[in-house]
Each structure stands twice: as C-alpha cells, then as structure tokens.
Amino acid sequence: MEPTSETGTRARAALRRGSGLVVLAALLATFAPARAQTRNVVLVVADGLRWQEVYTGADRALIDAGRAGGSWTKPAELRARWWRDDTAERRALLLPFLWGTVAKHGQLYGNRLLGSRVDVTNAARVSYPGYNEILTGRADPSIDRNDYGPNPNVTVFERLAALPGYRGRVAAYGTWWVLADVFNAARSQLPVHVGADFIPQDTPDPAAALLGSLYASSTHLYGANPFDAFVHVALREGLSRESPRVLFVGFGDTDLWAHMGRYDLVLETAHQFDAYVGELWRTLQSRPGYRNHTTLILTTDHGRGRGSIDWREHGVLQPGSEEIWLAVLGPDTAPLGERRNTAALTQGQVAATLMALLGEDLSRLDPLAAPPVADVLAGHHH
Fold first, then answer.
1. Which H or E run contains 104?
2. β-strands 40-46, 246-251: how paired?
3. Quick check: 337 pLDDT over 90?
4. H helices then E strands: how many in the chain?
5. Three-state secondary structure call for residue 313
C-alpha cells in the first residue's frame, strides 16, 4: 500500500532522526574513553634482579671472572650457556618470556642505555624499604632496615581487601619471611604465604603436604626462606583454592645467590624466575575469570652495585642500587614494548598504577602517594 504524502513525510523525518542518532552514537563511541578490561592484577617481584641483566643479558666480565667472580661453573661452559654477541639474542636467551611475550605485547621501563629510568626513592636501597615503597606508593624514611618489624603503613593490597569486590580475593606468596611484616599480616588479615608458612596450614592437598615435608627436611641457606621453586609449586594449588583478584608473588633466589657471590646461579635463577612467570601467565590465561582480564606487573625491590665485587651487594655504599626496572602486560596497556627516552619513573608509582588498573584512585586515599604510570593506562583494548 502506498503511504499518503503526510505519512511519507513523517517516515522520512523519522529516518533522518534515526540516522542522526546512529551518527551521534558513532561519534560518542569514537571519543568516549574505552572501558577498562582489567579485573585482576598480579604483581611479581624478582628480588634484587638488576636492570643490567634484564636489558643486556649475562655480563661477560662476570662470566669470564670464573671462580674469582663467584661462579663454580667454568667460564667456557657459562659462555656457551648464556653468552651471545648480540644483546637482543643474549637477553632473550636469559629471559625468554619477558622478551618473547611481555616486550611484544606490553611495556618495559628502566633500560638506562635508552634513556629510560626507574628509580628507588627510599634512601636505604634494601629490601623492606623497597617493598614498602612498591606496595604503599611512597618511601617511609623511618623504614630504613630489613628487621623493622610490622609495617605501620597500609599497602594497596590491604586497601583493596577492604573493598566489597575484593574481600577474600587478595593474597600474597613469597620466599622472604619478612614479607609478613611488610604486609603487616596481623593487622591486615591478608593471607600471606611466605617463609616457612608458604603453604597454607589448612590445605588438604597431598601434593602440598609432600612439598611441606621436602621443605622441612631440606637445608635453608637463609633464615626460613624456601627456594623459589617451592613457592611456585605452592602457588599453583593456591590459585585454584583462593582465586585471587589481586596477587603478590615475591621470588628471592636472584638476590640470595647474588649475595652468595654465585653469578652462575644468579643467571640460572633469573632464567627460572622468567619461566615461573611465563607458566603463571599461561595458567591465568587458560582460566575464564582471568583470560583477557588480568594485568601482570613485574619489577624488583632494589638494584645492585656494579663491577666485579659490588654487584654482589646493594645499599647506600653501592652506587646503582637505586636503579630498577618495570614491566607491564595486560589488556589496558598498549603494546609499546621497550621504552626509550621516557620521563623518569619511581618505584612508588607501582602502587597507584595497580590501583588505577582496577579503577581505584590511590591519591584520594593518600595524597602523598606517587601517581600512576600514565602510559601503562592509556591503551585500552577491545
């Protein structure tokens, strides 16, 4: 049936209005900020892993020093295992997940050879002050040693655990027993599985019980610390049991073996750290609650000295201990890769970045906290 003239006019007007709405919707979609995809954040710290190894791979001088440099492995064997003349090939050999996945799909900061700096701001440049800075957003001058005791400051993990969407979904795993104080486990009531308590006591898992038995009957090189491998295996079971939305993992072997002067084992444990993180990432991406909704943050608590002796230590007497690195991989982080000539970042920015990825504003809770890393948040993907 042919429409009357009046009906046709109304129909054409409605069509024009509809077209206008479509155009308006398209414009709004173009200019509106993309909705953040991150629902979970995993923060992994490789204790004392230098930016030099991260960005340039094995150090030829320390390899060639052999026993004088602390290695029990012959220099020729170390060179065959870890040395390649090409820097990109050498670092990828040491850290294949970092350079094969994170660098391709995320962002890396701290290669000072390319004008990218990440600095510790606490004056002590040792572990507890570093972890406090990472987890709270700023340095605390009163925290100047590792045996400080329970942390008076509130970490972003504790802040998030108090929010409705995160209650019972925040957890920490680590080798260093002092992390229980850093997180102030007694006050925060967070599940902090560190040191001798790296396995939750109430776990019914027989594999965890076996792991605990192996730990109890093994030699501990430093305090109550288990080796990283123990924590990594315990974390596998913990992921299924706790399904954390916010997870901290602290690996300590790289720092341990550096203090012991074993450069051969620093390289080996750095490689293992990379493998642990790669396995963790693949595990998370295989699970519906995490796949495409998880951001991974990698960093270290402090740098180390340089040269044939000072590489073993860190602190105010070892220049370079303030130099660290940072890497981020996730659905809201543009794949800009290894960054060059960036504004200097600080260790404290990790805390606000973690919060911002989850839609929370740390500055509202602590105006003195360092701001988030803007470029990490600027690339929402669909």
1. helix 103-105
2. parallel
3. yes
4. 19, 11
5. coil
Interatomic CA distance for residues 318 and 19, integer angstroms: 67
Q: Is 216 left (phi over 0), alpha (psi -120 to 50) or beta?
A: alpha
CB 27: neighbour CB atoms within 10 A?
Answer: 10
- The pLDDT of 113-129, averaged and rounded, is 98
Sheet of strand 323-324: strand arrangement: 323-324, 118-119, 345-346
Summarize pLDDT for 56-86 with one digit per residue, the tens. 999 999 999 887 778 898 999 999 999 999 9
pLDDT in tens, 239-270: 988 899 999 999 999 999 999 999 999 999 99
Residue the block writes with tokens 């920490």: 172
Asked if the model's pLDDT at residue 308 lies above 60, the reply is yes
The residues near 309 (Cβ < 8 Å, ≥ 6 apart) are none
List all residues 6 or more positions away from 8 whose beta carbon is below 8 Å from its beta carbon: none
Distance, CA of 129 to CA of 354 (rounded, Å): 19
Report how far Cα 308 is from the mean position of its chain's Cα atoms. 28
pLDDT digits (tens, 9 = 90+) for 2-30: 344 444 445 444 444 444 444 444 433 33
Question: Please, are residues 316 and 344 in contact by the beta-carbon 8 Å criterion?
Answer: no
State the residue for tokens 């929010």.
163
d(CA 143, CA 34): 39
